[in-house]
């Protein structure tokens, strides 16, 4: 079962994940032009882009725990998932700058360093930039596997920050981002608790570490 | 329901009102959920007829009043007001209603009264949001007596030429255009004249973010976001932002109410 699933995944090309990942954007563009958005389309565009970025971020964080717990490998798609997250994050911030803030640079500059929800959001974007820039084989080769991996561990910080960004942007404690924050913490906890794939022989594992 | 007409008022703005669709499909009415679309989706469950408003406390003629007693057809006025939400968006809304002072005078204000407290209907079986402890139900708000007697403060019973839709606070709600929208309490069942500053729901929940006065003030930021500018609903995708005016542009009429007060402290 697991093997058949992994075989299937192996045959699925990465561009198919990109295509599927860009569907929410295509839908959003369609809804915008078809007038399907609500009374405040600016908010809807901004929120949908932000939420999609967040869900890809959580998806990326889930790849390793999924592999270790179930043996199902999405490793091949992790770069695409991360870059899709970054794409939506950049679009989200662009919609904030242009539609929400109307290019009021002075107010944005003041707010970004003062408002907790913007500090959390901008910090996450700042983290995602170097990760996106180094999401290519050349960077891995240049940096060396270990330092590349260390750099990309910054995503563990970005996840909770984005959840806080969402929570702090609203007046009352919102259930949805609270739930996702819990999921992120569980995914990060799973990494610590389960250091290697489950179900593999202990002796074999020991041999490797010895 | 029958169409309503209100006499034009010199307090009305000549800015273009938002459409009825915008005003009735984008609401904060947490009794029906925290989403902007929740009120239009769920407010139909609220029974607004029969309805009575209990006026008590330091009133000369306390008692239970019908909506038509408080806002009779021949007294209705049209008031086209700007509405500024604490979330930094705004609308222009053509309300139909009566001055709050006329209602308070009907019940008679005892000389010891200093404040007016308001309370929204508490009926969880018809107001699904009240089943969750989002806020401390019932929703409560209050004004100082001189604010309440100011001619700009009205009790609205209509919108455009319609009776007030449920999601906008049917059958009768407060409108105080120089304060953030949350002060304009909806679906009022109780008005209490009192000599003590009333409990206000948002202030009680988070006093550092929501003060008793809640006057629109671009100089005093909400801790979570700036109040310097606002985005007008219906402005299109690239409509941009406009500067927020102190007292929401009603300073000429109301600033004197706060003479000598430090508005950064009394926010």
Defining traits:
heterodimer, A: 210 residues, 80% helix, B: 267 residues, 7 helices, 14% helix, metal-binding (chain A), electron transport (chain A), membrane (chain A)
Structural class of chain A: mainly alpha
Helix content of chain A: over 70%
Radius of gyration of chain A: 19 Å
| Straight-line N-to-C gap of chain B | 40 Å
- Catalogue the unreliable spans of chain B: none
Number of separate structural domains of chain A? 1
Order of helices and strands of chain B: HHEEHEEHEEHEEEEHEEH
Number of strands of chain A: 0
> Helix proportion of residues of chain B, in percent?
10-25%
Task: Output mean pLDDT of chain B.
Answer: 97
Overall 3D form of chain B: globular
Gyration radius over CA of chain B: 17 Å
**What percent of residues of chain B are in strands?**
15-25%
Question: What structural class results from the helix and strand content of chain B?
Answer: alpha+beta
Instruction: Tally the helices of chain B.
Output: 7
Keywords (chain A): Cell membrane, Electron transport, Flavoprotein, FMN, Heme, Iron, Membrane, Metal-binding, Transmembrane, Transmembrane helix, Transport
Family (chain A): Belongs to the MsrQ family.
Subcellular location (chain A): Cell membrane; Membrane
Protein name (chain A): Protein-methionine-sulfoxide reductase heme-binding subunit MsrQ
General description of the model:
The complex is a heterodimer of chains A (210) and B (267). By secondary structure, chain A is mainly α. Chain A has one domain (1-193). Chain A contains twelve helices and no strands. Chain A has helices at residues 2-11, 14-21, 23-34, 41-70, 75-100, 105-112, 116-133, 137-143, 145-152, 155-168, 175-193, 202-209. In chain A, helix 8 (137-143) packs across helix 9 (145-152). Chain A is globular and about 55 Å long. Residues 203-210 of chain A have low confidence and may be disordered. With 267 residues, chain B is α+β, with helices and mostly antiparallel strands. Helices cover 14% and strands 24% of the residues of chain B. Chain B is built from seven helices and twelve strands. Chain B has helices spanning 20-25, 38-42, 67-70, 100-107, 145-149, 201-205, 251-254, and strands at 52-57, 63-66, 77-84, 89-99, 115-120, 140-144, 154-159, 162-163, 173-175, 188-194, 229-232, 242-243. In chain B, strands 3, 4, 7, 8, 9, 11 and 12 form a seven-stranded mixed β-sheet that branches. A five-stranded mixed β-sheet of chain B has the order 2-1-10-5-6. The longest helix of chain B has 8 residues, at 100-107. Chain B is globular and about 50 Å long. The N and C termini of chain B lie far apart (40 Å). The interface between A and B is medium-sized, with 28 and 26 residues. Chain A: One of its GO terms (biological process) is protein repair. Chain A: One of its GO terms (molecular function) is heme binding.
């Amino acid at each position: 079962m697991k093997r058949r699933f992994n075989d299937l995944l192996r045959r699925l090309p990465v561009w198919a994940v990109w295509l599927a990942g860009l569907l929410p954007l295509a839908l959003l563009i369609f809804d915008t032009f078809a007038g399907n958005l609500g009374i405040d389309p600016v908010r809807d565009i901004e929120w949908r882009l932000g939420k999609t970025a967040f869900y890809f971020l959580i998806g990326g964080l889930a790849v390793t725990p999924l592999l270790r717990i179930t043996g199902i490998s999405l490793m091949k798609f992790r770069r695409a998932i991360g870059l899709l997250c970054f794409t939506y994050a950049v679009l989200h911030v662009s919609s904030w700058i242009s539609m929400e803030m109307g290019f009021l640079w002075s107010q944005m500059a003041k707010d970004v360093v003062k408002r907790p929800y913007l500090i959390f959001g901008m910090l996450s974007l700042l983290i995602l930039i170097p990760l996106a820039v180094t999401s290519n084989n050349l960077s891995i080769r240049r940096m060396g596997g270990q330092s590349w991996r260390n750099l990309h561990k910054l995503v563990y910080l970005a996840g909770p920050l984005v959840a806080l960004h969402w929570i702090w942007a609203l007046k009352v404690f919102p259930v949805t981002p609270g739930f996702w924050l819990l999921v992120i913490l569980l995914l990060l906890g799973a990494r610590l608790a389960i250091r290697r794939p489950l179900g593999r022989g202990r002796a074999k594992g020991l041999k490797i570490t010895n | 329901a029958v169409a309503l007409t209100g006499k034009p008022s010199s307090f009305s703005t000549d800015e273009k009102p938002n459409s009825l669709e915008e005003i009735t499909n984008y609401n904060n009415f947490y009794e029906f959920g925290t989403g902007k679309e929740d009120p239009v989706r769920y407010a139909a469950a609220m029974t607004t007829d029969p309805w009575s408003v209990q006026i008590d406390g330091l009133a000369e003629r306390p008692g239970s009043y019908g909506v038509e007693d408080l806002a009779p057809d021949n007294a209705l006025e049209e008031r086209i007001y700007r509405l500024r939400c604490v979330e930094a968006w705004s609308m222009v809304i053509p309300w139909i209603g009566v001055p709050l002072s006329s209602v308070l005078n009907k019940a008679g204000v005892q000389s010891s009264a200093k404040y007016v407290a308001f309370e929204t209907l508490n009926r969880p079986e018809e107001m699904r949001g009240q089943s969750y402890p989002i806020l401390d139900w019932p929703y409560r708000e209050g004004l100082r007596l001189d604010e309440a007697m100011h001619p700009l403060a009205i009790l609205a019973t209509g919108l455009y030429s319609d009776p007030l839709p449920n999601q906008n606070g049917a059958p009768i709600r407060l409108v105080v255009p120089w304060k953030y929208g949350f002060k304009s309490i909806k679906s009022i069942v109780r008005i209490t004249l009192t000599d003590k500053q009333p409990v206000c729901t948002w202030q009680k929940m988070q006093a550092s973010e929501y003060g008793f006065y809640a006057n629109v003030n671009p100089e005093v930021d909400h801790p979570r976001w700036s109040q310097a500018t606002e985005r007008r609903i219906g402005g299109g995708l690239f409509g941009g932002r406009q500067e927020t005016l102190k007292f929401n542009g009603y300073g000429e009429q109301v600033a004197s109410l706060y003479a000598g007060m430090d508005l950064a402290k009394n926010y």
